[in-house]
Amino acid sequence: MLKFFKKLAFIEGVSALLLFFFAMPMKYIFEMPIYVKYIGMTHGLLFTAYIIIATVLKFSHDWNFKKYLEICVASIPPFGTFYIEKKYLKNV
Fold it and tell me: At what angle do helices 80-88 and 2-18 cross, to 10 degrees?
């Protein structure tokens, strides 16, 4: 399950970057909102899956609350999941 979470963290991070640095500029600068619709929906699903899998792993791997909270909060800013991948999942 940790290998799956590592891959999910990477993909969720890429989707966040695509949303913030491609889709949103396309919407607000070039008036092309279609990218936000699809990339935003995909990112939302990946974000939800990331939080759910992190919660499952918290209980199955007995993570303390601080580690769990850090992993969940890191999914909010751009590049946060890449940090988590390096810090906690590099040996998976």
Answer: 160
Q: Which domain holds residue 14?
A: 2-88
Question: Model-level pTM?
Answer: 0.91
Per the structure, the count of domains in the chain is 1
Residue found by looking up tokens 């913030």 in the block? 20
Q: Give the Cα separation of 50 and 48 in Å (integer).
A: 5
What DSSP state is assigned to residue 80? H
pLDDT tens across 46-73, in order? 999 999 999 999 999 999 999 999 999 9
pLDDT over 70, % of the chain: 100
Q: Angle CA(22)–CA(26)–CA(27) in degrees, nearest 5?
A: 120
The residue behind tokens 């390096």 is 86
In degrees and rounded to multiples of 5, residue 26 shows phi and psi of -60, -35
